[in-house]
Design goal:
- The structure is a homodimer.
- Chain A is built from twelve helices and twelve strands.
- By secondary structure, chain A is of the alpha/beta class.
- Chain A folds into three domains: 44 residues, 434 Repressor (Amino-terminal Domain) (Orthogonal Bundle); 135 residues, 3-Layer(aba) Sandwich (Rossmann fold); 130 residues, Rossmann fold (3-Layer(aba) Sandwich).
- In chain A, the strands form two sheets. In chain A, strands 2-1-3-4-5-11 form a six-stranded parallel β-sheet, sandwiched between helices. In chain A, strands 7-6-8-9-10-12 form a six-stranded mixed β-sheet.
- The interface between A and B is large, with 50 and 50 residues.
- The structure holds a DNA duplex.
- Chains A, B: Keywords: DNA-binding, Transcription, Transcription regulation.
DNA sequence: TTGTACGCGTTATCAG
DNA sequence: CTGATAACGCGTACAA
């Protein structure tokens, strides 16, 4: 056996015209049952596989969706991918996957690669460095359907799926206050990120409602590097005026905090309480177990894919409206925020 | 702007023949520098993007590699993916990614989807349910280059990348013995998996060398379901004749053990020591911190991609020889295997 | 140095 | 119901 047979060869074998065979395989109504059967059985016998590129060329679609995420080693994004894949496969779509590693330059390269319609549509969450979005606008202008999730681009008029960032951060902060925290810090990646803004707002409003002033040094901007983040957080924890509570806007910063705490004489939750946005399944196994705000990652992925496929299947009736769809997160209280 | 311009249209704009434009863009030696410049600048001006499907159809290659992994929410596989992606992107290759969720039926479907040469090659790690490999043999017979990593198929004559499973398991077991364990259990997924077999051999040989008998009930076969695994392990830990040491052949079973221990009165490492194959970055943050055998995941991914691309680029000189390439793991001792 | 013609494997249109 | 033909966009042999 070697490299597969073409429609034409299959037709020759059957002594039929290629067009007839094509129609038979596509179950066209204008082909008799008898020939359909003959064609199908021969196709199976010879293990005929249609060439996807010829088809894509002809139909101007690839049955492929591109997914761009900031990082792969991240439970949230991995779960979202699982959700997208589940729905995509149900509808015969394939997934091209790209990770930007939180690097805008990488993101731009990837996006530029996708301009040629290699994928029928794009699902993405922008990198933490992304503030100028002209590369994404370009995509949009090329008529490539695009959906954002989690870290969205409000400038681009399409559908976005997020969790209730504001409320969750608000509730998380309120929880810290109820547990007795007086000085609460907020850990963020880039301040330009949509999720940062919303979660920060929730944090500030919760403080305000409790009559607390947000300490400027308590808004900590972190970066991609775990080492640097641990350094930054350690400094904050060792400072004269250190926080006694932390709301971490992403999982990795909570883990960095755990590492930092090990470098101090502090202990969680006695000296410092912490809650974080995170989808880590082993949050409950950490020392101490970590209170989390768990995002509906799988659902977000599924919904993204469902909407996109609806749009791809029936483009007329389904525009990607400029709207934000919110799916709520779930607070799970564990030891890291226990009152003494 | 709408949907991109074709080579023909670009040629018309330039008042040149399509073939000339094609050659200019591909930097052919038979085109004058002057026209090359004109063509390139116009191509940029009109944002010309070659149609990848026309190209794939013509050249019979897609510049795409398919990657099949058993699960996405797994630090090892995520890191391997990162390694593959890094090298693939350097060479202009795209990645189609599929997860089997440890399900052979899913694996078969995916593999069948790839028969049509949608991808130029495949990198994969088989599901834990995979014992019959006829679906993979079929791929191989189709002349689709395929490379295995970690969970390999010895029946298929191609290159495989693994870690030193036998030695690592041997060393891990020996470490447990040195720390005072007398009754060591081995946790595995399916016993048919290549990694299970090798790691089990290492475990058995270490026991033997220490003059210990392998207790039959201490070889625990687990499954995909975390709940069931926790149940199984809990039973083992509560049994009359319980182990005092555990070598876990995969990360998830170690985490399941941590959950199980919480359901008993035992404590790690006093009553039970445990070491596991794992690439979890937060192993050091668990309670207690978890001793691990860390696989060179990134390197494995990079090497797979390098070899595959060499093969795809210069097929004549690079056959995928039937060999196993071993890249060693690293033992990291933490609290979970401390002697009392 | 540039242009013409063809084929890659499909599917849709038009004829019969 | 089936067959012939054209077209999708590109690259290459062959011609000029």
């Amino acid at each position: 056996m070697s490299n597969g047979i073409s429609l034409k060869e299959l037709a020759a074998e059957l002594k039929l015209a290629p067009s007839t065979v094509s129609r038979a395989l596509n179950d066209s109504y204008e082909i008799s049952e008898a020939t359909k059967k003959k064609v199908i059985s021969m196709a199976e016998k010879l293990n005929y596989q249609p060439n996807p590129f010829a088809r894509s060329l002809r139909e101007n679609k690839s049955k492929t969706i591109a997914v761009i995420i900031p990082e792969r080693i991240n439970n949230f994004f991995a779960q979202v991918m699982d959700g997208i894949e589940e729905i995509a496969h149900e509808h015969g779509y394939h997934l091209l996957v790209y990770s930007t590693h939180e690097d805008v330059e990488k993101e731009k390269k990837i996006v530029s690669l996708l301009q040629n319609k290699r994928a029928d549509a794009i699902v993405m969450s922008v990198s933490s460095q992304t503030s100028d979005v002209s590369h994404l606008v370009k995509l949009y202008q090329r008529d490539l359907p695009i959906i954002f999730f989690d870290r969205v681009c409000s400038d681009i008029p399409t559908t976005k799926f997020i969790t209730n960032d504001y409320e969750s951060a608000y509730e998380g902060t309120k929880h810290l206050i109820q547990q007795g925290c007086q000085k609460i810090a907020f850990l963020m990646l880039a301040k330009e990120l949509s999720i940062t803004k919303e979660r920060y707002r929730g944090y500030l409003d919760a403080l305000k409602e409790a009559g607390m002033q947000p300490e400027p040094t308590f808004s900590l901007h972190c970066c991609r590097s775990d080492e640097e983040n641990i350094q930054l957080i350690t400094e904050l924890l060792k400072s004269e005026n250190r926080p006694d509570g932390i709301l971490s806007s992403v999982e990795k910063l909570a883990l960095a905090t755990y590492h930092s705490v090990k470098k101090t004489k502090l202990s969680i939750p006695d000296d410092l309480k912490i809650i974080t946005f995170s989808n880590m399944s082993s949050a409950g196994l950490l020392s101490p177990s970590l209170s989390t705000i768990t995002q509906p990652a799988l659902t977000i992925g599924q919904e993204c894919a469902k909407l996109l496929i609806k749009k791809l299947t029936k483009p007329r009736h389904n525009e990607l409206k400029d709207q934000v769809i919110v799916i709520p997160s779930k607070l799970t209280i564990r030891e890291s925020t226990m009152a003494r």
